[in-house]
Amino acid sequence: MDGAAPFSEAAVARLAEERLDHRFKGLPPDAEGLTVGALAAERRPLFTGGFTTPVLTLSSAALDHNLALMERWSAERGLVFAPHAKTSMAPRLFTRQLAHGAWGLTAATPAQVRVHRAFGVRRILLANEVVDAAALRMLAAELDADPEFRLLTYVDSVRGVELMNTALRAAGATRPLDVLVELGVDGGRTGARTEAECAAVADAVAATDTLRLAGVAGYEGEIPEAGPDRVRAWLRRLTALAVEFDGAGRFAGVPEIVVSAGGSSWFDAVADVLGELPPLSAPVRKVLRAGAYVTHDDGFYRRKTPFNRHPDQGGLFPALRLWAQVVSRPEPGRAYLDAGKRDAPYDIDLPEPQVVRSARDGSVRSAEGMRVVALADQHTFVELAEGAELEVGDWVGLGLSHPCTAFDKWRLIPLVEEDGTVTDYVRTFF
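Given the sequence above, the corresponding structure tokens read:
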């Protein structure tokens, strides 16, 4: 499998053949009927090329920087990277992540696995326990159809193991499904709460012929009142569990032992603690799953990124920007833009005005003195400090917080050079 292509180049290339129509907001209306590839070849300017607001854009330079930084950072620490692809669900970004050293991709749901497989992704970590019989039939069929496909999924309960075993046996699965026992924490998200419960789950796996225990995993990002000490203490429980299972012979017969953790807020702690793992009976695959790094953001992850704690190691750049136009100035100190909850994430922070492009002369200035105070379905409410000026027709570039809830609002996103030239389009599948 190591010599196989990590994705289907043909399937990704076919994205350029899709015809443009009413499904894709923000794109030039006069591009109707063109293929995505034909429009990309025109290299239209974002502001004068017929794009309509609101329009979400991706910075090509920021993407390049972020991909290269995390490739280097992970490799230097002996980690393999399976970025959580739920962030973008964008095959063009998947391919760039895989080309920049990603070992595989992480999915959250069987539906996301189907998207990954449609584009030929060869290694997938499904970071959930799957108990739906129809989904398990699909996973078994994918494994049976492609001997080079590697799938890992979570188990965190004896009952879950029973349901998985029943469904896989009914499906006539011929390859065992590799599973990782998930360790959780009281008050957190999923995962068995105690080591004794984890051992019971592992025993249940061993009693089946449809599942194979391949390692341990978990997610440190939902630890209540998470801080460095609590996160590292939980990570050491995870690595100790791997050592205990290995000593008990629970990993007998697997070619490698997978130990996986790591969202986008604590991957520095993950690297440090997984680096403390002693040699085990088989090679250890230390898998980091952070996904938001690819675009970073101007809010939640700007505050949470581990690079804030280690500025000497570099830093990620925000790649997402939503452009909206001023459509109303009905009272002093208030402006309204033509973007809203249908276009921008608002689950953690409101958008942040960053730059203004004048409708009169195309000049660009800082959005200093401007603050988003609310979003309606299709309007952004901007409060203006004294001296801050906006005119109807001006374009406002908004920084966004939480990329996971930005991508899902857009089906085709322009990729923009620093001079505003649109060079490609990123298709999402939500």
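The first strand starts at residue 55 and ends at 59. Try to locate this feature in the token string yourself.
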